[in-house]
């Protein structure tokens, strides 16, 4: 077993701290929506309010914790969609006919040549808000990143002796892709997926911040950042809380992505995009 | 998006091998064809998405409109015609540069877009310039001796900054410099001071990545033969860094700068909204929230053209910056 890279350990440490905060706050999930107008905008550190309370007197830390499933869930959904679509189409491009290949690569080029956030805003405008829309839009806009990497790597793997041997032995194309080509791609795919998860988390938060992501009232981190703006002067902790949660999660994910990339393929160290 | 630029660059590079002027022209033609394809796909998608999401007449009229208004809009916009006929007429209008009238003020949608474009482009140019100005010295300083303790610490800070979302950086900067200290205006575009926070926010988000890539490139360049030669010829370390290492390190970062510039043209949606900056991104969000579809369409297509132009510009910059890529045939 190789020694775990320092990035991976640091990322895991941050993640453990975040989880510990989430779970040691007793009753955090139940109280998240509890409005307490007597204690509006109380500062961090006032009794029972570790991170302060928001404009409706709700406990900020509880709300951040309650917002995690929404933000992380959307990011996970979008990432899964992008990975499944990207891997399938990337493999299809590598294995398929010339026509299939150029069609897939051309569509991937189109998808990548357009700024995702702009397309997402326009698409959400048309399709309406909500977690499912957001997952669909973000996933459909970002699969091409995976398709391109999978295509390029699969082309190289396809010519290796063991794959050629399997082909001569009469193994059919889908089986070859699944049993012989895909496993060779997993190390780079794992690191890439972690990075992509972080990117999707930021994108979902940015869209929610703009008001085109989370439905009204949902405790998404981006929406909480947007809600904090009228209270910037009185209650800066409303900004700091969700901002720290988002930045720390992204940092942990990036560190883990870098660490995994090093751990799984020492020759391919560092973040490649 | 970095890969997109790198690959397109390679396309142009391969087209500029000795005596291949024709191939270069063909590559340029291919890029133009790609742009047309991109615009056609994008407008087609927007058209069918709008139709698929429900009755567009109802969407345009708003949720609380009565049946007569909806019917009037349906006839006025031709939504009562077959879908395919609608699509053809829509595309032929687009081809003639007619994006329809804004639903908000009945002015041509493209007028609002063209009015907003300079604000976005100038902000992007300024932010890119500041990013390069910030990142170059830091990258050179880090890359020259990356293992010294204070530089290791700087590298960690850069890593953290690189991962912090741009809009979070902007909100924190507003909190510090506009709200608490009151030194700079938080929103709007009025006077020089109002440019500071948007530009700095964007640069603080982009510069760490550029600095890290530059540092890596500088570190690599120091191992090259030409550095050893210069050192043997008696050049000082400072001269080697400025004359030999830095130009080559910058050259290797052009692809990243290009993709960052493309990001600035297309990705400043959030920053423009935060700072109430009268640019394309804010126009897009506002028209999205007010369901002003003609403007959404025009703005999205405009952003696509801008981002595409940035990609082409990067390719040209590559050719201009690296004499090795220029050949007699193309000059």
Helical fraction of chain A:
over 70%
Number of helices of chain A: 10
Average pLDDT of chain A works out at 79
Question: Taking all residues together, what is the mean pLDDT of chain B?
Answer: 79
Coarse morphology of chain B: globular
Which blocks of ≥5 consecutive residues of chain A have pLDDT under 50?
268-273
Instruction: Give the amount of beta strand of chain B, in percent.
Output: under 5%
Keywords:
heterodimer, A: 273 residues, mainly alpha, 71% helix, 0% strand, elongated, B: 331 residues, globular
Molecular structure report:
The complex is a heterodimer of chains A (273) and B (331). With 273 residues, chain A is mainly α. Chain A contains 10 helices and no strands. Chain A has helices at 6-24, 28-31, 60-95, 98-112, 116-127, 131-158, 161-168, 173-210, 221-227, 237-264. In chain A, α1 packs antiparallel against α10 (237-264) and α3 (60-95) packs antiparallel against α8 (173-210). The radius of gyration of chain A is 22 Å and the shape is elongated. Chain B is mostly helical and 331 residues long. Helices cover 77% and strands 0% of the residues of chain B. Chain B contains 15 helices and no strands. The longest helix of chain B is centred in the middle third of the chain and has 36 residues, at 109-144. Chain B is globular, with a radius of gyration of 24 Å. The two termini of chain B are 30 Å apart. The model of chain B is unreliable at 1-12 (pLDDT under 50). Chains A and B meet through α4, α5, α8 and α10 of A and α1, α2, α7, α8 and α12 of B.
Question: What's the helix and strand layout?
Answer:
The complex is a heterodimer of chains A (273) and B (331).
Chain A: H1 6-24, H2 28-31, H3 60-95, H4 98-112, H5 116-127, H6 131-158, H7 161-168, H8 173-210, H9 221-227, H10 237-264
Chain B: H1 2-15, H2 21-52, H3 56-61, H4 67-76, H5 83-95, H6 109-144, H7 149-163, H8 166-180, H9 193-222, H10 225-232, H11 237-252, H12 254-267, H13 269-274, H14 280-289, H15 293-321
Helix pairs in contact in B: 1-12, 1-15, 2-15, 6-9, 6-12, 6-15, 7-9, 8-9, 9-11, 9-12, 10-11, 12-15, 14-15
């Amino acid at each position: 077993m190789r020694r775990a890279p320092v990035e991976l350990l640091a990322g895991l440490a941050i993640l453990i701290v975040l989880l510990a905060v989430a779970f040691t706050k007793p009753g955090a999930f139940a109280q998240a929506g509890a409005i307490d107008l007597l204690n509006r905008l109380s500062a961090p550190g006032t009794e029972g309010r570790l991170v302060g309370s928001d404009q409706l007197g709700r406990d900020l830390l509880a709300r951040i914790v309650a917002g995690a499933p929404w933000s992380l869930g959307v990011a996970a959904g979008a990432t899964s969609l992008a990975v499944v679509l990207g891997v399938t189409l990337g493999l299809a491009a590598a294995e398929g006919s010339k026509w299939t290949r150029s069609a897939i690569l051309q569509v991937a080029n189109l998808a990548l040549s357009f700024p995702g956030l702009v397309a997402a805003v326009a698409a959400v405008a048309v399709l309406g808000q909500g977690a499912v829309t957001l997952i669909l839009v973000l996933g459909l806009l970002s699969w091409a990143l995976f398709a391109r990497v999978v295509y390029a790597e699969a082309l190289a793997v396809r010519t290796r002796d063991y794959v050629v041997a399997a082909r001569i032995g009469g193994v059919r194309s889908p089986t070859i892709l699944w049993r012989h080509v895909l496993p060779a791609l997993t190390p780079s795919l794992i690191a890439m997926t972690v990075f992509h998860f972080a990117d999707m988390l930021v994108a979902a938060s940015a869209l929610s911040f703009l008001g085109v992501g989370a439905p009204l009232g949902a405790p998404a981190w981006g929406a909480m950042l947007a809600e904090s703006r009228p209270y910037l002067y009185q209650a800066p902790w409303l900004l700091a809380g969700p901002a720290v949660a988002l930045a720390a999660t992204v940092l942990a994910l990036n560190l883990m992505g870098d660490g995994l990339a090093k751990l799984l393929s020492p020759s391919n160290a560092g973040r490649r995009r | 998006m970095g890969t997109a630029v790198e690959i397109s660059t390679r396309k142009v590079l391969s087209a500029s091998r000795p005596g291949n002027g024709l191939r270069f022209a063909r590559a340029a033609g291919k890029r133009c064809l790609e742009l047309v394809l991109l615009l056609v796909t994008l407008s087609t998608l927007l058209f069918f998405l709008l139709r698929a999401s429900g009755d567009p007449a109802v969407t345009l009229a708003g949720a609380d409109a009565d049946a007569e208004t909806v019917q009037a809009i349906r006839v006025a916009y031709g939504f009562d015609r077959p879908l395919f006929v609608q699509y053809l007429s829509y595309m032929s209008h687009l081809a003639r540069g007619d994006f329809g009238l804004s639903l908000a003020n009945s002015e041509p949608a493209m007028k609002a877009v063209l009015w907003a474009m300079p604000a976005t482009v100038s902000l992007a140019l300024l932010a890119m310039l500041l990013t390069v100005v910030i990142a170059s010295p830091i990258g050179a300083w880090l890359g020259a001796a990356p293992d010294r303790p204070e530089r290791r610490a700087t590298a960690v800070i850069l890593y953290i900054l690189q991962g912090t979302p741009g809009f979070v950086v902007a909100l924190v900067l507003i909190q510090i410099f506009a709200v608490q200290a009151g030194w700079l205006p938080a929103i709007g575009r009025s006077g020089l001071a109002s440019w500071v926070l948007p530009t700095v926010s964007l640069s603080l988000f982009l510069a760490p990545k550029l600095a890290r890539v530059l540092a890596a490139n500088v570190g690599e360049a120091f191992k090259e033969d030409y550095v050893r030669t210069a050192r043997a010829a008696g050049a000082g370390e400072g001269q080697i860094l400025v004359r030999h290492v830095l130009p080559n390190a910058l050259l290797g970062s052009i692809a990243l700068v290009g993709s960052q510039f493309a990001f600035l043209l297309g990705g400043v949606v959030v920053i423009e909204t935060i700072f109430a900056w009268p640019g394309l991104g804010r126009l897009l969000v506002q028209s999205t929230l007010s369901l002003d579809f003609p403007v959404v369409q025009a703005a999205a297509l405009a952003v696509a053209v801008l981002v595409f132009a940035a990609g082409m510009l990067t390719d040209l910059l590559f050719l201009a910056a690296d004499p090795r890529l220029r050949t007699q045939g193309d000059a």
